[in-house]
């Protein structure tokens, strides 16, 4: 899609409105949550009324983002979506909000332009980069809590700065946030170097589910609701499992299939090099980035796995390497 809306246009729209509700996507990650808290704090600093709807449960590792946060209760007039590529990602919020979103701020090239006013910068490694630039335009002074929120979005969506989406702008923004006093080392530790025992048990279980396809170029793991019950994990322990298949030497497409309900699975796809994860996800009405994408697929696990692997094989054939 061609995006002609600028961040200055978004800033003007925010300045002329009030009573904001900010939406995150379902299964909220660090980028959507960090974007939401940073923007909400900025709007409140401007004297606006703003609140956040976390689309699902807030992972306990993100609870610190609520420090010094002012909770507000009011009837919303302006709806803002952050880090949401399609209304399918609204999940349970879709019936109420899909047709009334005023402003969308996103970094997914697969964004479907569902809002009245959309800003999409696919060059940003994380949507939090867009929020950082927007806050600068709004003229709101960054405080430590806002810096922590933006940094959380950036570090989680870049795998602690090791993914190919990282740019020089990403590093400059992060350096600025560190100069503002953000708790970068502690955030990195909590996000990447801390695991519960339940998470360790789940990792062992998913490794037992591992299968390789296409001469080891495709790796698939799966989780089930039974596995979650047996290991004792909750949503807070499941983040990052999708990176496991791609870590295997020789694998170029890693697939994680998570059971979410009766015959309903959330599929996370990770790829390297020229292989496009978003093209695979698009086969199932999903989306995302070149190296990381997702979709929801319904059916028996064996059928879902076969269909996803087939789509991944088609991507291997397309690239032809």
How would you briefly describe this protein structure?
This protein has helices at 7-15, 30-45, 94-97, 127-138, 144-157, 168-179, 184-192, 197-208, 225-231, 277-282, 301-319, and strands spanning 20-23, 50-53, 78-82, 103-106, 117-120, 211-213, 218-223, 253-261, 264-271, 287-288, 292-298. The chain has 321 residues and is of the alpha/beta class.
| Most strands sheet | 6 strands, mixed
Instruction: Determine the strand fraction and express it as a percent band.
Output: 15-25%
How helical, in percent, are the residues? Answer: 25-40%
Q: Output the structural class.
A: alpha/beta
Unreliable stretches, pLDDT < 50, 5 or more residues?
Answer: none
Radius of gyration: 19 Å
Count of strand segments = 11
Mean pLDDT: 94
> Widest sheet: strand order?
6-7-8-9-11-10
How many H/I helices?
A: 11
Shape: globular
The string of secondary-structure elements, in order, is HEHEEHEEHHHHHEEHEEHEEH
Distance between the termini: 28 Å
In terms of topology, how is this protein built?
Blueprint lengths: L6 H9 L4 E4 L6 H16 L4 E4 L24 E5 L11 H4 L5 E4 L10 E4 L6 H12 L5 H14 L10 H12 L4 H9 L4 H12 L2 E3 L4 E6 L1 H7 L21 E9 L2 E8 L5 H6 L4 E2 L3 E7 L2 H19 L2
Parallel strand pairs: 1-2, 1-3, 3-4, 4-5, 7-8
Antiparallel strand pairs: 6-7, 8-9, 9-11, 10-11
Helix pairs in contact: 1-4, 2-4, 2-5, 4-5, 5-6, 5-7
Descriptive labels:
alpha/beta; 11 strands; single chain; six-stranded mixed β-sheet; globular; 321 residues; 11 helices; five-stranded parallel β-sheet
């Amino acid at each position: 899609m061609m995006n002609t809306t600028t961040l200055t246009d978004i800033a003007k729209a925010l300045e002329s409105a009030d009573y904001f509700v900010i939406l995150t996507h379902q299964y909220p990650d660090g980028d959507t949550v960090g974007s939401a808290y940073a923007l909400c704090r900025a709007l409140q600093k401007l004297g606006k009324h703003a609140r956040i709807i976390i689309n699902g449960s807030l992972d306990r590792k993100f609870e610190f983002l609520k420090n010094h946060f002012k909770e507000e209760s009011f009837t919303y007039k302006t709806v803002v979506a952050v880090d949401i590529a399609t209304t399918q990602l609204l999940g349970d919020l879709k019936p109420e909000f899909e047709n009334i979103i005023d402003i969308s701020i996103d970094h997914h090239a697969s964004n479907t332009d569902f809002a009245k006013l959309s800003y999409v910068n696919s060059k940003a490694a994380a949507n939090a980069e867009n929020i950082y630039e927007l806050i600068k335009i709004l003229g709101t002074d960054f405080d430590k809590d806002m810096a922590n929120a933006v940094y959380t979005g950036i570090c989680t969506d870049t795998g602690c700065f090791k993914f190919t989406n990282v740019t020089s702008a990403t590093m400059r923004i992060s350096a600025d946030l560190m100069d503002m006093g953000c708790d970068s080392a502690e955030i990195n530790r909590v996000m990447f170097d801390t695991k519960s025992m339940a998470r360790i048990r789940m990792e062992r279980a998913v490794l037992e589910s591992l299968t390789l396809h296409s001469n080891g170029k495709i790796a698939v793991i799966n989780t089930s609701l039974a596995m979650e019950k047996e290991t004792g994990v909750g949503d807070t322990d499941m983040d990052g499992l999708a990176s496991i298949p791609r870590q295997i030497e020789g694998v170029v497409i890693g697939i994680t299939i998570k059971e979410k309900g009766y015959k309903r699975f959330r599929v996370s796809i990770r790829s390297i090099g020229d292989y496009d994860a978003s093209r695979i996800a698009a086969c199932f009405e999903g989306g995302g980035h070149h190296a990381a994408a997702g979709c929801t697929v319904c059916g028996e696990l064996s059928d879902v796995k076969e269909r996803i692997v087939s789509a991944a094989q088609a991507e291997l054939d397309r690239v032809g390497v």
